[in-house]
Specification:
This protein has a single domain, classed as Rossmann fold. 28% of the residues lie in helices and 18% in strands. The chain has five helices and six strands; from the N terminus they run E-H-E-H-E-H-H-E-H-E-E. The chain has a six-stranded mixed sheet with strand order 3-2-4-1-5-6, sandwiched between helices. Helix 1 packs parallel to helix 2 (60-73) and helix 4 packs across helix 5 (152-162). The longest helix has 18 residues, at 123-140. This is Broad specificity phosphatase PhoE. Pfam families: His_Phos_1.
């Protein structure tokens, strides 16, 4: 029989972001106090699992989420650029309920194709790098489990691709809460199920910045 391997995609915890900035790949955005509690809560929730590999996006908020998780299993966090947040031309702008972005007509030239999307990294490119990251972690943790810490849009996009769904979507409909886990179970190299859980769901206080 082929080995069963589980790769969990863990979204980072809440970020300190009082200006409601679309921070994307910008440096300097760290977990809030609640975000740190989320990371600790997840680490306790998964402590009994058979995790042998923990990898993370190199952005601060992801690494800070990964640290207590890796410590729970006595492993080192392995940074992986393929788990980065999606590139976005609007990063650094204040969302302010959408007004900060849409009040400047110069931004409109980037909104011509929501299916690609025209304002950032192509969905298909996100799928390619996220699939490579998942496949690599599956191979490294063969017969066990791995946890990969990433960001909302990349996790949601690879899930939709894995489930055979279209990639363009309404960001408000993503099932990928803060510190949530999207779990891919493999029989050998064959994906047999996709699961979703929110081990720190009780700590979520408010909607987060889309794509964070």
């Amino acid at each position: 029989m082929a080995a069963t391997t589980v790769v969990h995609l863990l979204r980072h915890g809440e970020v300190e972001n009082p200006a409601n900035v679309l921070y994307g790949r910008l440096p300097g955005y760290h977990l809030s106090e609640t975000g740190r509690r989320m990371a600790e809560t997840v680490s306790k929730a998964v402590a009994a699992r058979d995790v042998v590999e923990v990898r993370s996006s190199p952005l601060e908020r992801a690494l800070e989420t990964a640290t207590p998780v890796a410590e729970a299993f006595g492993v080192q966090v392995v940074p992986d650029e393929r788990l980065l947040e999606a590139g976005n031309l609007f990063e650094g702008l204040s969302l302010a309920a959408g007004r900060g972005l849409f009040r400047d007509v110069r931004n409109y030239r980037h909104l011509w194709n929501p299916f690609r999307p025209s304002w950032g990294e192509r969905y298909i490119d996100v799928v390619t790098r996220m699939k490579a990251a998942v496949d690599s972690a599956r191979d490294a943790a063969r017969g066990h489990e791995a946890i990969l810490i990433s960001h909302q849009l990349p996790i949601w996009i690879i899930r939709m691709a894995a489930e055979g769904r279209r990639l363009w979507h309404d960001p408000r409909q993503r099932q990928c809460g803060l510190a949530s886990m999207t779990s891919f179970t493999f029989d050998g190299d064959r994906l047999i199920s996709v699961g979703y859980s929110e081990p720190a769901g009780s700590l979520v206080r408010r909607p987060s910045v889309p794509g964070a």
